[in-house]
Write a structure and sequence with these properties.
The complex is a heterodimer of chains A (about 400) and B (about 400). Chain A is built from 15 helices and 5 strands. In chain A, helix 8 (about 185-210) runs antiparallel to helix 9, helix 8 (about 185-210) packs antiparallel against helix 11 (about 290-310) and helix 10 runs parallel beside helix 14 (about 350-380). Chain A has helices at about 1-15, 20-35, 60-70, 85-90, 105-110, 125-155, 160-165, 185-210, 225-255, 265-290, 290-310, 320-325, 330-345, 350-380, 385-395; strands at about 50-55, 75-80, 95-100, 115-120, 170-175. Classes of the chains: A alpha/beta (about 400), B alpha/beta (about 400).
Chain lengths: ~400, ~400
């Protein structure tokens, strides 16, 4: 037990004194907390610029344009004489859509004929396309409903029924858990989990490869791998006991993200997550063995892990084989679990399968780490004499 | 090896020395080639199934009428949503949503059919989980398409009851139909966009960190930097010889992944391929020089690599791949402008899915050229100042070009 404690204290000391580890685990955490959320903080797209080509030039067509401009989603920023010049504006990225109101728009409406408008919306971005097409369709529907009611009354329908007729069964779509359908609320809770994982992986990887990683060098000879790993894990748990609640509870609060979860289930769920990530970090350190390699490889892995985690690209759309492989990385299930617990306010039982799998991953990776370390010490033992070890131990104290 | 007297310093010497280094450092070589290619294959595999269809939703049918059954059938028939379970009450639906088994719950109120035909406008409510925004948006799209279709039937019957001819009544249902055309992406397939857009962000991380590492190998020990310079016979040939082997490798990686995208996966290539290639070259050079500059400014190399990661890993968000830059705050927008990847992405989207006319395509290319020239200037200035600060200490030491020890 005292061995575990000694390793624990030494590792905590190293977290704060080994410069590269300190900059990743502490400075990196502070930096990302401020920097990463910036692109998403506006939550939703507002006033997407579009151009209007009004070929009709009547009161009705101008009313229609005004109503479109009045929606919060789009803004009519340019009035163009023809489609060709409006197209150039799209290519120049000054507008994201073109609304064409054809000639005789008003005349057809007055005649009781369908009077179509055409919308060309930039579909390379789903969000932009959705905003522009949704806003124009909503205006057309509202205006259309007024016209329809007037026409029904004209053919002798009771005004009360005529008012209900355009929409006899209104559909109310209620977004839950993210009432604004905001992008920050969607992406940040998941991204924070991934950031936590990447920083802890990097930190453990660097601490495991930089000088002083083996407590045997530091004067605590005679320790078997198990207490070394246990002591280090305790140190990382202690560190994450501060950082993880800041990321998953304080930051969402500061950024005003809606959340329903309670603190305790999040903290319980965090334990196997931290242990699994730290275990994976030991394994990464054992495989790559040099701090610079650990840093380079983990830098390269960030983006694929982000895409496979199942939030920016829906997990239903990821081929099952890749999905299975992705479960080996703690973040995949941890994101699902943490989002359930903190954002949806689910009870711990709803995240049972994620919790158990993370526990299994934690055991799995730490066992591998144990084996790697046992093999390493056995490989070193014959080459380094006992006196030499004791000597280095004394010299560092 | 050649005798010392026969070695003529110059660009070629540095170039071949770097190639030799790469051959002796399989990790560095793999990092610059196999790793980004493997990432691209992996990403392509993630998106290979296309967008999710038939996402499971639940139904709470309190009416059990012909109308409610019709609505359920129509919702189930849309490509986006599938009715997976019937639930008995809202609490059951809620717990299914919490466990992630369903993405939405459609509630059809009691007396739906009766109230509809009496003109009381009963509400159909669809609760959907927007915590996962993409799936939430997809399921609501399915329900949004199905319920109005069911309502249209009712609206028609109301008119025929008033003695309106059917074709006339049909025209009347939508006085202002909107003909929506999806520009640049007629099939609304986001795999195109994502794959095209992810290449710059994947490569940006790799190129900046790898360059920081490879330049760091020379910077970390002062004598190597002097060796490099005298091997090159000057500042500029040495820099060019150091950087060019990687430029060639990265251009090969970019070319290979683009061949995969445009030839095998048949993504649209509507613009000018040569503009795409020029933009790619300027992008590669900018990223390399950014990594080199960071390695010259920050020591040890590990710090330079960490800072490179810190700058490039979240660039994905700032380049506006998930959330468009249009909606960002001023800081995020401004930071995005400072990333080479943002401009290469612009040029790439212009020349692939948009097919932008040439006269409107120059801005991102000019920006990339500015980055490349500016960063090269900064790196050269830093090298000169490093040399002048080092000179007073050992001005007379003449470097022996072949004395370097591989690490």
């Amino acid at each position: 037990m005292s061995g575990i404690l000694m390793v624990f204290r030494a590792e905590i000391h190293r977290i704060f004194t080994v410069k590269p580890a300190f900059s990743v685990l502490i400075l990196g955490a502070a930096f990302y907390a401020l920097f990463y959320p910036q692109p998403y903080l506006n939550e939703a797209l507002r006033n997407v610029p579009i151009a209007v080509v009004d070929r009709d030039g009547t009161q009705s067509s101008r009313d229609f344009t005004r109503l479109v401009d009045a929606t919060p989603d789009v803004a009519v920023t340019e009035l163009m004489p023809d489609v060709a010049s409006a197209e150039r504006e799209v290519y120049a990225r000054r507008v994201d859509g073109i609304l064409v109101i054809p000639q005789y728009f008003e005349r057809d409406l007055l005649h009781g004929r369908p009077s179509p408008v055409a919308l060309y919306a930039d579909a390379s971005y789903f969000l932009i396309y959705q905003r522009v097409s949704g806003a124009v369709a909503a205006v057309a529907r509202t205006l259309g409903a007024e016209i329809e009611t007037a026409r029904l009354i004209a053919i002798g329908v009771d005004p009360a029924i005529a008012a209900a007729a355009p929409d006899p069964m209104p559909l109310t779509a209620v977004p839950i858990f993210n009432p604004e359908a905001g992008y920050a609320t969607y992406v940040l809770p998941a991204a924070f989990v991934l950031i936590l994982q990447q920083m802890l992986l990097m930190g453990v990887g660097l601490l495991g490869t930089l000088p002083g990683a083996d407590p045997a060098d530091g004067g605590t000879r005679g320790l078997t791998p198990a207490p070394i790993i246990a002591g280090k894990l305790l140190a990382y748990l202690a560190l994450e006991a501060v950082i993880l609640p800041i990321y998953l509870i304080v930051l969402p609060y500061l950024y005003g993200l809606p959340r329903l979860g309670e603190t305790l289930p999040i903290l319980i769920f965090a334990v196997p997550f931290v242990l699994a990530v730290a275990g994976l970090g030991f394994v990464v350190a054992g495989i790559f063995r040099r701090p610079i390699r650990v840093a380079l490889i983990l830098a390269a892995l960030g983006l694929p892990l982000f895409m496979v985690a199942g939030f920016s690209w829906p997990s239903e759309a990821i081929p099952p084989a890749i999905r299975m492989v992705s479960y080996l990385v703690p973040s995949t299930l941890a994101i699902t679990g943490f989002v359930k617990l903190s954002q949806l306010g689910a009870p711990l039982a709803a995240a049972n399968s994620e919790l158990l799998t993370l526990c299994a991953l934690a055991v799995f990776y730490n066992l591998i780490a144990l084996l790697l370390m046992a093999r390493k010490t056995r490989a070193i033992d014959p080459t380094v004499s006992e006196t030499a070890l004791i000597g280095t131990g004394h010299s560092t104290q | 090896m050649l005798a010392r007297g026969r070695i003529r310093p110059g660009f070629r010497l540095v170039f071949w020395r770097e190639v030799g280094w790469l051959r002796r450092r399989p990790f560095l070589l793999a990092l610059a080639t196999i790793v980004p290619l493997a990432q691209m294959v992996f990403l392509a595999a993630i998106f290979s199934a296309g967008l999710a269809t038939r996402l499971p939703i639940g139904v709470l049918d309190l009416d059990s009428s012909d109308l409610s059954r019709t609505i359920i059938r129509m919702v189930d028939a849309t490509p986006d949503s599938a009715v997976a379970v019937r639930v008995g009450d809202l609490a059951e639906g809620r717990s299914l949503i919490l466990s992630g088994k369903i993405h939405g719950l459609l509630m059809l109120p009691q007396y739906l059919q009766r109230d509809v035909f009496a003109g009381r406008r009963p509400e159909v409510v669809f609760f959907y989980n927007t915590q996962t925004l993409t799936t939430g948006n997809l399921t609501v799209r399915g329900v949004n398409a199905a319920v109005p279709t069911a309502a249209a039937g009712i609206r028609l019957s109301l008119r025929s009851a008033q003695g309106q001819p059917l074709d006339f009544a049909e025209a009347d249902l939508q006085p202002i139909p909107v003909q929506t055309n999806a520009l640049f992406n007629p099939t609304l397939n986001y795999v195109y966009f994502l794959l095209t857009a992810l290449i710059p962000s994947v490569l940006q991380v790799i190129m900046v960190t790898t360059s920081a590492y490879s330049v760091g190998l020379d910077v970390e020990t002062p004598h190597r930097l002097r060796i490099l310079r005298s091997l090159g016979g000057g500042l500029w040939p040495a820099m060019a010889g150091k950087i060019l082997p990687y430029t060639i490798l990265f251009m090969l990686v970019l070319g290979l992944s683009d061949t995969l995208l445009f030839r095998v996966l048949e993504l649209p290539l509507r613009g000018h391929p040569w503009l795409l290639i020029i933009a790619g070259l300027l992008f590669v050079l900018s990223c390399q020089l950014l990594g080199a500059l960071l390695a010259l400014l920050l020591k040890p190399t590990l710090t330079a690599v960490s800072i490179s990661t810190l700058v490039t890993a979240p660039a994905f968000g700032f380049m506006g791949i998930g959330f468009p830059r249009l909606g960002m705050n001023a800081f995020a927008y401004g930071w995005g402008e400072l990333l080479p990847g943002t401009w290469y992405l612009t040029a790439r989207i212009d020349q692939t899915i948009r097919g932008t006319p040439v006269d409107l395509s120059w801005k991102p290319l000019l920006m990339l050229a500015t980055f490349a020239i500016g960063l090269a200037g900064l790196a050269a200035w830093r090298l000169v100042s490093m040399r002048s600060s080092a000179r007073p200490i050992d001005a007379r030491s003449v470097p022996g070009p072949l004395a370097e020890v591989p690490s």
